[in-house]
Design brief:
Largest sheet: none
Order of helices and strands: HHHHHHHH
Number of helices: 8
Number of domains: 1
Length: 157
């Protein structure tokens, strides 16, 4: 019994170390990139890719943050931007739908590769499925898409 517990603990410890070594540099990179001009230019350069799918330029920053760094970071950018009125309900929904299918593309791929997965297959498949799904959703009849997204302010401490 002791050997089983020891093996499980060793495996979990190794996995936690791998996750830490992958996620921590990404978090540090994001904090640094936010202050760099090239990051803004990168977002502008992706506009031709995402515009035909239904995304407006204001939606690209939270979308790209979520794609690269994950849903939590994407939501951390999306919620304040939505509250400010920069994004309408349709854009918020399309971002959420895209990120539901294709979030943390770097982090998740590195974690799956560390466990033996094929990186390019994972990236390309997730990205193409998300593009197709969001393209279809963007063509739906959206009522009053000029209205701001209904995001309520949080109360509390």
């Amino acid at each position: 019994m002791y050997e089983i517990v020891k093996e499980i603990a060793g495996g979990l410890g190794g996995l936690m170390l791998k996750i830490f070594l992958i996620v921590m540099p990404l978090i540090m990179f994001l904090e640094w990139a936010k202050s760099q001009r090239w990051f803004g230019r990168f977002i502008d350069a992706t506009n031709p890719v995402f515009r035909p799918i239904g995304f407006r330029p204001q939606a690209l920053f939270p979308l790209l943050i979520g794609i690269i760094f994950g849903i939590a970071y994407g939501a951390g950018v999306l919620i304040p931007q939505s509250r400010s009125g920069d994004l309408d309900a349709k854009q918020v929904f399309l971002i959420a739908a895209f990120l539901g299918l294709c979030h943390a593309i770097i982090e998740d791929t590195l974690l799956f590769v560390a466990m033996g997965g094929h990186g390019w297959v994972i990236v390309v498949t997730r990205f193409l499925v998300a593009l197709g799904a969001v393209f279809g959703l963007s063509k739906l009849n959206w009522p009053a898409s000029d209205s701001p997204a209904p995001v309520k302010a949080e109360r509390g401490a």
